[in-house]
């Protein structure tokens, strides 16, 4: 399994000098990103660093204050056509069945696709159940199926596993990875779990104060496991990057804070091979 390849249904995502301002607060500042079709990008960073704002800009819920965010498929397509989001809460309609929830808002005739995704998520025998009788992990798999029924070019995942217990979380991660490998959409996942970011990402971006301060390429075979020494090492690198700019908050810094890194706009084409691209 690989994050790159020629046969892809995913779209390229390009952000050019994107700022997002809320009053006096700059939630995103000078974001320059180039995400290739079918790439799996994960995003980590402290609370309030701008991760969710980036996803909201990408799905069209927010407009940049400056700059442009573009989804480039065979042609430039509107975010609402090409981009789907899965949030931490599944947001299902309690009075609709699993199958009905999955098909809501989707194109007609997508029952077969919905059944296929639900089946792959282990819900093939729960199609006529209502959300109230499902577990948290099952509900989240319905939310994932609902997003994929639209055949998105880009799938945005905003802490989708955050509320799940550890075992259910591992199952959900594997499901997302296998669906991504099969359908080749471009995936952008926000997570607070640095190991999860390494397990799933072709590239991990570290956000701080609305900027990308680090980009870590993960060139490891898939599926990956937390027990891989390299996974642990890269997770440590990410923690270091997250906390080094404010060691008094995290206390994990082993290096001096990098004064210059966050001040300069970054261009983040995924570097080949394992390593950290510094900007
Ligand atoms: N609608 C809004 N109005 C005003 N400020 C906002 C709004 N949305 C976000 N912000 C601010 O923008 C900054 C970035 O918020 P964002 O939700 O993107 O952070 P985050 O990295 O996703 O945080 P978390 O990990 O806690 O979810 C924060 O300072 C937040 O207070």
From TrEMBL:
Key words of the record: ATP-binding, Cell membrane, Membrane, Nucleotide-binding, Translocase, Transport
GO molecular function, one term: ATP binding
Keyword Coiled coil: no
Pfam families associated with the record: ABC_tran (PF00005)
Protein name in UniProt: ABC transporter ATP-binding protein
Upper taxonomic lineage: Bacteria, Pseudomonadati, Myxococcota, Polyangia, Polyangiales
Keyword Translocase appears in the UniProt entry: yes
SMART domains documented for this protein: AAA
Span of domain ABC transporter: 13-234
Natural source organism: Sorangium atrum
